[in-house]
Amino acid sequence: MLAYSLNDLKSSVLGRLALMFSLFLTFLACSCLLLSESQRIYLAGWGFRAKIRVVADPLMTASIEDQSQQNKFTSLFVDKAHPSMYALNPAEDCAKHIEIVEQNDLARVIKYVLKPGEKTGWHFHDLGFLTIQLSEGTLMNYVAKDHSEMATATGRETHFKPGAAVSHKAPLLHNAVNTGDCDVIAYEIEFLRAPATARMSEFDH
User: Fold this and answer.
1) What is the pLDDT of residue 58?
2) Is the backbone of residue 30 left (phi > 0), alpha (psi -120 to 50) or beta?
3) What value does the mean pLDDT of the chain take?
4) Is the distance from CB of 132 to CB of 186 less than 8 angstroms?
5) What is the widest separation between alpha-carbon atoms in the chain?
6) Same domain, 181 and 91
7) Which sign, positive or negative, has the C-alpha torsion 88, 89, 92, 95?
8) What's the count of helices (H) and strands (E) in the chain, helices before strands?
9) Strands (E), 45-164
10) 35 and 20: one domain?
11) In this structure, are residues 198 and 169 in contact, taking their beta carbons and an 8 Å threshold?
12) Could you tell me where the beta strands, DSSP code E, fall in the chain?
């Protein structure tokens, strides 16, 4: 009789432990549902010393990596004849009078000069940017939505005024041609981290 009572007690205790363990696992499952979509919980091991490891969601990680790849400074191409100068387009007939004034993890500042008759060549801005005009001059700006529109893009005349600052919203695919009789000079500042809050570019139409 005593042995039976002990066996019955053991069964009862084991049953309660099993119930508690089941409730514990249920609690963990519910906790998973409350986590953000960018996290997943993995259980390693069993018992009361079960370990919990939180890792990033691969899909979320991929989207962040894609964004970091997209949000980058406008491509510049080194002028072989003058290694300290750059161009916005590698074609031989495009202007190569661009100087990097400052570049860091927040922004990049370039100074460009377009001589009469010169063009920047088609280039793409993935970041919003600010232009500070340093000279007078006249530019004809051609804007396209994609490469298929570049050949038929209609130009819009823009007049520079020293000291004027103009914000431009990305994305922007355009080509600028100096149609005036003097050099067009400006600073261009691209913001790597700052959110795009600028108005639509006046180049767009």
Assistant:
1) 34
2) alpha
3) 75
4) yes
5) 114
6) yes
7) negative
8) 2, 13
9) 51-56, 77-79, 82-87, 98-103, 107-114, 123-125, 129-133, 137-144, 155-160
10) yes
11) yes
12) 39-44, 51-56, 77-79, 82-87, 98-103, 107-114, 123-125, 129-133, 137-144, 155-160, 165-168, 172-178, 184-191
Spacing of C-alpha 148 from chain mean position: 24
Please write the tens of the pLDDT for every residue from 127-156.
999 999 999 999 999 999 999 999 999 999
Query: Running DSSP on this structure, what letter comes out for residue 13?
Result: H
Residue bearing tokens 């990049």: 108
Q: Does a structural domain hold residue 199?
A: no
- 89 lies in the same domain as 137: yes
Please tell me the distance from the alpha carbon of residue 186 to that of residue 200, in angstroms, as a whole number. 19
pTM more than 0.90: no
Q: Which residues pair with 119 in a beta bridge?
A: 177
Q: What is the pLDDT of residues 89-123, one digit of tens each?
A: 999 999 999 999 999 988 999 999 999 999 999 99
* Domain-embedded: residue 197: no
Task: Supply angle C-alpha 196, 113, 165, rounded to 5.
Answer: 35
Cα–Cα distance for residue pair 140/119, rounded to 1 Å: 9
